């Protein structure tokens, strides 16, 4: 893998061209412009044209990216560069896959507009792709999209339709376009008598009616009958217990988990609430779990978000009352979901791992950077558990006073609490980054990946890289890798840009993406 190609894959997976991941919205913070453009220019110079678009599509299809919006931005850079028409054509072809949703299409247009500056983005190639986006979608699917999103990322469907001069090919599609351009009344006036458009217009009328409903019971009934999702429901109805009860069966599991904290703080998940049973049924639904492809780390972060949110609910100027606590049944269901996702969604890599944990404190007040609901101890155990569930040859260890590694006896059947208890009993001591590699070398132990999880912000890694390179030669494992996870690192270390070894990866902080990035780097995805 060439250096520019690896830089591109890093960008697509975690939003940086250097081997350092830190949680946070890189697109929102606009810290991606020059690095993406420079990387793609370097690849073009090396004539890796086809690989660029293919890499973007593969990263999207694999679903491993910690910053999916970065894929859209990279695609926009490819489409708007003027160096190579072949790459531009490949980008428009890839757009059909990467921007199949209206959110991503609008995001692509937003990026393309920004990259074009004063130039028009509406060339014949882009117009053609946008026309196909509207014309090749199933009519019912397009109606659902029209009902969900009229505006996203600063763009309206109406804007795009006017700019591309879209000509619908069926009465049903024509009715949807009329609705997007002029509203439901105009659509019904023109297509109300057309039998092909009748069902579509009824659906769109129901969407419009929902927006203006104030009766919570009627709104909940409409959501239940028409299988509306959260994107269809206006904000004023998202404060209704009845509406959330109707939504709970329609929401994909990741969306439900994302909104669990919100539902809880509204006070809808108190004991004996009917909504509690509906939420639990949704969390335990085997089909929903299978379709979700949720990573266990995301489940645990959602669990902690829900559990910890009650500690920060403040109601000023109100009479003192008993504090609200998280519903224990919901907590139990989330723990079961965590166990299920560990069994279902952690594919084996076939690699041998050495996981070394180095924490100076196991206090509940020691939180991870960018994920303050999760402690350093919890994050360490999560990382270890994900690897233990995925692969057979995983050793987890801590250091003693002599900096010798001692095994930490963790098993797949343990809970996170059990794992933390094992950490407390281990009486672990501090270690250097290179300690696990040195220990493996002395003991003639063969490992493909060394993972060091610590709450220390180290001042350098050069010595550890030298030890790793010697280990590769001694043990004849040329692709052995080192991953350093600094759970409390809130800045980009100055020594990161000095790392030239492609087998070294550093993580600062923690979020639900970290274990998946460890797995992806280990198997050579970037």
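-> sequence recovered:
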């Amino acid at each position: 893998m060439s250096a520019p190609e690896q830089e591109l894959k890093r960008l697509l997976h975690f939003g940086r061209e250097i081997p350092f991941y830190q949680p946070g919205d890189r697109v929102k913070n606009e810290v991606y412009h020059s690095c993406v453009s420079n990387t793609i220019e370097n690849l073009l110079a090396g004539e890796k044209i086809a690989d660029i678009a293919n890499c973007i599509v593969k990263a999207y299809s694999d679903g491993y990216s910690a910053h999916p919006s970065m894929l859209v931005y990279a695609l926009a850079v490819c489409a708007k560069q003027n160096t190579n028409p072949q790459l531009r054509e490949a980008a428009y072809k890839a757009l059909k896959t990467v921007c199949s949703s209206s959110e991503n299409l609008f995001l692509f247009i937003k990026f393309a507009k920004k990259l074009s500056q004063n130039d028009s983005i509406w060339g014949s190639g882009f117009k053609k792709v946008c026309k196909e986006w509207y014309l090749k979608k199933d009519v019912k699917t397009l109606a659902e999209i029209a009902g969900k999103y009229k505006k996203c990322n600063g763009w309206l469907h109406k804007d795009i339709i006017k700019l591309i001069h879209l000509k619908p090919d069926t009465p049903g599609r024509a009715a949807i376009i009329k609705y997007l351009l002029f509203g439901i009344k105009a659509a019904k006036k023109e297509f109300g008598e057309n039998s092909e458009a009748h069902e579509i217009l009824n659906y769109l009328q129901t969407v419009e009616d929902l927006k203006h409903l104030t009766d919570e019971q009627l709104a909940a009934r409409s959501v239940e009958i028409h299988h509306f999702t959260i994107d269809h429901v206006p904000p004023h109805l998202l404060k209704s217990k009845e509406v959330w009860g109707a939504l709970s069966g329609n929401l994909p599991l990741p969306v439900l988990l994302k909104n669990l904290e919100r539902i809880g703080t509204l006070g809808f998940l108190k004991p004996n609430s009917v909504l509690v049973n509906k939420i639990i049924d949704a969390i335990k639904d085997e089909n929903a779990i299978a379709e979700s492809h949720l990573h266990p780390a995301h489940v645990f972060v959602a669990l902690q978000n829900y559990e910890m949110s009650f500690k920060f609910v403040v109601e000023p100027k109100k009479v003192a009352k008993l504090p609200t606590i998280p519903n224990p049944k919901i907590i139990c269901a989330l723990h079961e979901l965590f166990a299920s996702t560990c069994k279902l969604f952690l594919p084996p890599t076939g690699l041998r791992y050495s996981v070394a944990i180095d924490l100076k404190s196991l206090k509940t007040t020691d939180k991870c950077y960018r994920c303050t609901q999760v402690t350093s101890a919890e994050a360490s155990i999560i990382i270890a558990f994900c690897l233990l569930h995925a692969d057979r040859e995983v050793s987890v260890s801590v250091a003693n006073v002599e900096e010798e590694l001692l095994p930490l006896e963790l098993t797949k059947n343990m809970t996170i609490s059990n794992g933390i208890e094992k950490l407390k009993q281990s009486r672990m001591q501090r270690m250097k980054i290179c300690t696990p590699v040195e220990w493996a070398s002395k003991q003639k132990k063969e490992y493909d990946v060394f993972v060091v999880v610590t709450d220390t912000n180290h001042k350098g890694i050069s010595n550890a890289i030298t030890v790793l390179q010697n280990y590769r030669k001694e043990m004849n494992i040329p692709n052995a890798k080192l991953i350093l996870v600094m759970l409390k690192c809130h800045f980009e270390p100055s020594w990161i840009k000095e790392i030239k070894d492609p087998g070294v990866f550093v993580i600062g902080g923690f979020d639900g993406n970290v274990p998946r990035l460890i797995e992806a780097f280990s198997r050579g995805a970037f």
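The longest strand covers residues 353-358.
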